[in-house]
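batch_manifest entry 22 of 60
target: Oligopeptide transport system permease protein
source organism: Croceifilum oryzae
requested by: lab member K.T.
priority: normal
notes from requester: please return tokens only, no post-processing; we will run our own comparison against the previous entry in this batch. if the run fails, retry once and flag.
--- input ---
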Amino acid sequence: MARYILKRFSLMIVTLLVIITATFFLMHSLPGTPLKNEEKLSPELRAQILEQYGLDKPAYVQYFKFVGHLVQGDLGKSLNYDGREVTDMLMQGFGPSLLIGSQALLFGVLIGLILGVLAALKRNTWLDSLATGASIMGVSIPSFVLAALLAYFVGVKLGWLPATGYDTYSATIMPSFALSFAVIAQISRYVRTEMVEVLEQDYMRTAKAKGINRFAILVRHALRNALIPAITVMGPLAVNIITGSLVVEGIFAIPGMGKMFVESILNNDYTVIMGTTIFYSVLIVVTLFIVDLLYGIIDPRIRITGAKE
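--- output ---
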């Protein structure tokens, strides 16, 4: 197991390094500079400001300087937000995205698991049709369309919940539900498909013949084996939701990571672009790393195969 973890951790570090390097040089290939009202600046003042931030140096020099600061945990200061620390900006924007995303993920996984298991146990019944229909709708309807419909009908027309803002907890319910719909669809579809296949296996019949409790069979054998494909999609879904849907956050006026990331790109705010990209990347690779470990725990055959490789 230790060798398996070490191999996955090494791949995670290499992946992060590649992402940081590619993002840095692609970012510097964008037209323009982070300077506001650049056309109104005199050539002398423009050169002075670029020198102050080290932007007059070649890209590779700036890259090694950035990596040196990054190793020390310093992401630098924003070039467009009055010199605010990028780390502080990330923490401020991540809070709303984390709350909404965590709620969406928790609700989506729980409902998805329940629907998937019930659909597999009640195949070819109205419950199976309901779960399948909900799965198709969740995959087909984009989260921002559902968010717009919820904001208009539930928020504006009926007035049951706040349509925009982030002042009260009730304002987080609709964005969370809009994001959770896709999670419900994905999890229920994968769990239902795998549960149907697992329930037909010979070892399931053997367990029943031994007189093992039906609930124990479902939890220890059927659900455990059916969870592997579900965990595969759970990792990317978790990162995508927690970091926040750009459009959904915009519809409900949520001051999360999405808004900050888009504004940093539009303003060529190099430090914020790098900070948000690294933040996203770390979340993704760490989540996938945890998913890999869960594979090894749920199915030891994966762990053994990885060790042999």
